[in-house]
Amino acid sequence: MREMHAYCPRLLLTLGDPAGIGPEVVLKALAAQDWMQQVAIAIVGDRTLLQQTYDNLHKQHPDLTLADPAQLNLVDIASPAVQRSQVVTGQGNAASGAISFRSMEVAIAHTLAGQFDGIVTAPIAKSAWKAAGQIYPGQTELLAEGAGVERFGMLFVARSPHSHWTLRTLLATTHIPLRQVPDILSPALMTLKLELLIESLARDFGITQPRIAIPGLNPHSGEQGQLGEEEQTWLEPWLVEMRSRFPQIHLDGPIPPDTLWVRPGQVWYGSLPPGKGHDAYLALYHDQGLIPVKMLGFDRAVNTTIGLPFVRTSPDHGTAFDIAGQGIADATSMQAAIEVAIALVNQRAAVTE
């Protein structure tokens, strides 16, 4: 087996929507430390727009620490001049959406061709993609389509600065209206997500006998059918089946959603030892999983897409158009996304050779 530090991961960073904070947090993250000792990094995006971002930020804040675009390995998508001129900082539109979408297409193509081990994506605006004629729920779905996979999931990873414990939360359902959640959730969907989670924990984190917590859907996990019937009708029987199917996995649930996150919070802040936390949490819908993740680790949480043939991570924040171009965007989550991508690529290299 190859030593984990012997392989140099090759990562491709996208700039996200050029009208948002993506270019800024990428330049800040790349200047934050000497990444060249750990990883080979390239950027995909419009060189002219990136240089404009760099120049404008330095003009406003001469002491701001930014990576110099001229010194970076950049895959230039060279947008048409007319399209480039329509990009307005702080305002996502059809032009910025088309540029960010094209960057993603190029990133996927280069990675599938074997030039890179993973992609770290800066945030895009779904509304800008839609304005550009590209209808996708998000980058995750485009990545899965480009890679030709149907089994994929959104796993959020955050490492506590207090206890150094790692919180991992997979979403069973993602960007859908809340009223659709009970209809879309099913034993088949939960089985698919659980299988993905078990595979990822082993492949990406080296955890082969994990403890996984699964919440109920309803308040108090339905309270024996008084507050909802999903737990009794299918979730509890499904858990019994999964425990039999995966005897090496410890499955806790269905845990009442309002108490599920108490222990992770205590472990995060160090009032309980890391061993008291679960290795992963399988949340049933978007806010059930992401409210606690963002509350605990908003500035360091990382979104990683599992089920792809390559690593993909992303900071857990949006385009923040309201502060774009001001030099005040926090690059901590982007830096964490790079760090997690390095770790995942190294772990995959270690277990496959």
Structure overview:
- There is one protein chain.
- The protein has 13 helices and eleven strands.
- With 353 residues, the chain is α/β, with parallel strands linked by helices.
- It folds into two domains: 1-149 and 308-353, Isopropylmalate Dehydrogenase; 153-302, 3-Layer(aba) Sandwich (Isopropylmalate Dehydrogenase).
- The chain has an eleven-stranded mixed β-sheet with strand order 3-2-1-4-11-10-5-6-9-7-8, with helices on both faces.
- β2, α2 (47-60) and β3 (74-76) form a beta-alpha-beta unit.
- α1 (22-32) packs across α13 and α4 (94-112) runs parallel beside α6.
- The radius of gyration is 21 Å and the shape is globular.
* DSSP, total strands: 11
Number of domain modules? 2
Helix percentage? 40-55%
SSE order in H/E notation?
EHEHEHHEHHEEHHEHEHHEHEEH
CATH class of the largest domain: Alpha Beta
CATH architecture call of the largest domain: 3-Layer(aba) Sandwich
Could you tell me how far the N terminus lies from the C terminus, measured between alpha carbons in angstroms?
A: 5 Å
Q: Which band does the percent of strand residues land in?
A: 15-25%
Question: Which fold does the CATH topology of the largest domain refer to?
Answer: Isopropylmalate Dehydrogenase
Overall pLDDT score: 93
Main sheet makeup: 11 strands, mixed
Note the overall shape.
Answer: globular
Number of helical stretches of at least 4 residues: 13
For the largest sheet, list the strands in their spatial order: 3-2-1-4-11-10-5-6-9-7-8
Poorly predicted ranges (pLDDT <50, ≥5 residues)? none
Structural class: alpha/beta
- CATH homologous superfamily name of the largest domain? Isopropylmalate Dehydrogenase
The Cα radius of gyration reads 21 Å
